[in-house]
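A note from the maintainers: we've had questions about how concatenated examples are separated. There is no special marker in the raw files; a new sequence line simply starts the next protein. For clarity in this README we add a label.
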Amino acid sequence: METVRVEDRQSGRFAEVPRPLAEYLSPRDLVELEQAVRTSFNIAKHDEAEQALDRVAAGDPTRLMYGLLWLTTMWSSLSAARIGVTVPQFTSALGYRGLRFDLSGESEQSWATGEQALRRGVLAVATSVEDTHECLRVYGRLDPGLARLRWIMLAIMDGLTQDMERNGVAPWGAAEHIVRAAGWAQR
């Protein structure tokens, strides 16, 4: 698995960010997705953001789910480097409780099961192409349209990006910076 090392200049530690799997989304698609995700966190722009997310999915919700997992993996890697833990340690703590959970209508057990499956996917993207494929297959069986898992993933990402900003790690623009620095946009 090809990765790029990104230095956290504040801590001096490095994050390993995996090259996106082109069979799902191109590096350029991921840069666009990052902006759509950011827009989705603005309640006033919810409909606009949903349309942008649907465009990325292009009729295949697996494409979008992979992109959300990749962005979360990238942000988790950067955050783990900042605070000095491993990516598995960091991803094991990913979760969300708040308004999005309250509005979801999900039971506590159903939400927890979704979070657990998504944490496994984030770790898979960081470590194994085969595990990534398997997670996406399992997601399709658990939630055929991936709408429920998409909602939970966006809630996790919202909480994660807020935590990053509070700790001086800039999530927005990170995908573009990494894609360009690694030379992935030209391939």
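[label: protein 2]
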Amino acid sequence: MSRIAMMFGLAMGLHTGSAIAATVNLQWNGSGCPKVEEHTESSGDKVLAKHDVTSSFTVKRGPGVRLMESRKNCTLIVSAEGHRAQFALEKVEIQGKVAAASSKQELTVDVSSQGQGQTKSITLEGKSSSDSSFSVEKTLTESDQIWSSCDRGLMLNTKQRIEGDDQHPAAASVESISYQLKSKPCVK
């Protein structure tokens, strides 16, 4: 199930500081999430994109489980439609479950501008609670933020990997991914 929420939207007033309506495109796709495309009208300078993931973002290791099942990803591409804007990731939050607290789970988010070689990899660390659920979040400093190029989308690739073997089976699932983004107009 996909749920996309816009918070404050996009600020598009170039010189006057006034906000106008803008369309933001959100495209989700990957081995851990089904393809979903949203077009949302908004105004302001913040965007909150949240994706509630079904069982497709589950990773496993153990007897009879193929290696490819130990890693999955979910990519979000954020772009502007009908206007020129840039986007940057401010904060990421991921929630899910781990079957065994001793399982070694890796969660990372790769941030890049479409068509550009520069990628920032963000490692997320967190602890599981007594019911095996986990919630990890990270707020990026200004220096850690990567802005998309003008007329290019911001690409956010969340990756999950788990380690285990025949003697130590492991499983984990991501249940929701939230990105808080900021935007600014491109300078002409």
